[in-house]
Design goal:
It contains five helices and 25 strands. By secondary structure, the chain is mainly beta. The longest helix has 19 residues, at 6-24.
Length: 445
């Protein structure tokens, strides 16, 4: 998900996209004058010495609306104590007015034409292009595109949100345009509209989700096409294949589908590329063991099966083609290796304060959101179990790490079930013979 900086980040990336398009098309040579890309209200653009506005394209965000596809995805819910149990992201559509200005006759039309061509050729913002645009300029990286006053946009998380950013032309009728330019209180200029969707802004306030469901009775039947039908897993090759168990590092990922076998098979999990063993590839099933060497991080993972198809007898750059399956997804959960309580003291209100050290796999990366949940075990008769949630400061994670120290305060001295949530993916809980959750636990001394 993006942070509240996502809106400004989208505008900056679009300005970079237009500016690169002008450079690639040599528009400056066509006009004989430099072109400026701005994002100001049309009535506040600066004029030149002759009182005219220099040749430029202005991308003005004039309206923000709720995305209709995400607004009904889920509703925030609270428990009987008023605590937030489930939260949904703020999903926004951004509406831009693209206005061209030219110092000479027809310059405005030329600039607008090139601008619309650039946006038409780039209907989806590439994640790598977003990261490149939101890289701060520095001594070590002078090619960074973010000026010092906008350096905080680098942590917006826009490139990593689950939905990609899409650009769509938006029709504005005569009445719409008349209202807009009347509100601007400036002279009308040739313009057109675009809608950019969707920006997902995450909720900072931590929720208190209930313990996970142990068994689901929801069944789905998928068609043979696309080729990846299901993602399942095994704890080991001797264990049964399951579609509902949580997946952690060390598990065997099982891809079920059709027409999966080929002479050259590559599995893409996000940006990692894995070559499975030939013995583990069949027409309907591929098995690969997840390891830390794959560089995966906890959270949502996209999976594709890629076949290399060679045309001709001698492979080279122009006769090797790639046949990719549909994109499927699974959640990689963090695995708690150890939990330790340290330096606990008693506060004046009788509650406890201290530190809890956790070691987990895979390593937590910068900008990942980590929450520690403590659920009281065996509360006194007649009392509800107490639940605590502690968010680890995002800015303190500067490099990938397997160890985190949580500052814990105002908790009761008791035994607790421990869960770690990384980017929405929760760690595993174990049950006893009676089917009750009993591990992992920690005792606040």
């Amino acid at each position: 998900m993006s942070s509240a900086l996502g809106i400004a980040s989208v505008t900056h990336v679009l300005k970079d996209l237009l500016n690169d398009g002008f450079i690639n098309q040599n528009v400056t040579d066509v006009l004989g004058t430099p072109i400026h890309v701005s994002s100001l209200p049309p009535g506040e653009l600066q004029t030149g010495n002759n009182g005219a506005i220099p040749s430029q394209i202005n991308l003005f965000l004039y309206r923000v609306t709720y995305n209709t596809g995400w607004v009904n995805r889920g509703f925030p819910t609270r428990d009987t104590d008023g605590k937030l149990v489930q939260s949904v992201p703020l999903a926004l559509d951004l509406h831009y007015l693209l206005t061209s200005f030219g110092e000479r006759e027809l310059h405005s039309e030329i600039i607008l034409g090139y601008s619309m061509q650039v946006l038409h050729e780039n209907p989806v913002l590439d994640r790598d292009a977003i990261r490149d645009s939101l890289t701060p300029a520095s001594i070590t990286d002078p090619l960074g595109r973010l000026p010092a006053n906008l350096s905080h946009l680098a942590i917006s998380g826009l490139a990593d949100q689950i939905e990609m950013i899409k650009i769509t032309p938006e029709t504005l009728n005569t009445e719409d345009i008349s209202k807009l330019w009347s509100a601007f209180q400036t002279k009308y200029r040739t313009c057109t509209g675009y809608m950019v969707t969707v920006v997902l802004i995450d909720v900072d306030k931590p929720s208190h989700p209930a313990l996970p469901v142990q068994q689901r009775k929801i069944y789905s039947l998928q068609l043979r096409y696309p080729k990846i039908n299901k993602i399942a897993s095994q704890a080991s090759s001797l264990d049964p294949v399951s579609e509902i168990r949580k997946i952690i590092i060390g598990d065997i990922l099982v891809i079920l589908g059709a027409q999966l076998k080929n002479n050259s098979v590559l599995i893409k999990i996000n940006e990692s590329e894995i070559v499975p063993m030939t013995a583990n590839v069949s027409e309907n099933k591929i098995s690969i063991q997840l390891t830390t060497a794959m560089g995966l991080k906890a959270g949502m993972q996209g999976v594709q099966v890629v076949h290399q198809v060679t045309v001709g007898e001698i492979p080279n750059d122009h006769d090797v083609k790639w046949a990719s399956s549909n994109l499927h997804a699974f959640v990689l959960c963090p695995d708690l290796n150890s939990i330790t309580a340290n330096n606990f003291i008693t506060l004046t209100n009788g509650l406890r304060e201290g530190e809890i050290d956790v070691q987990l796999t895979p390593a937590v990366r910068p900008q990942q959101r980590v929450v520690l949940y403590l659920d009281e075990l065996n509360p006194p008769t007649g009392n509800e179990a107490t639940t605590y949630a502690f968010v680890f400061p995002v800015d303190e994670i500067v490099i990938a790490t397997n160890t985190l120290t949580f500052e814990v305060t105002n908790v009761k001295d008791a035994a607790y079930l421990v869960r770690i949530q990384v980017d929405g993916a929760e760690s595993l809980l174990e049950t006893n013979s009676a089917g009750e959750y009993d591990h992992p636990t920690i005792i606040i001394p």
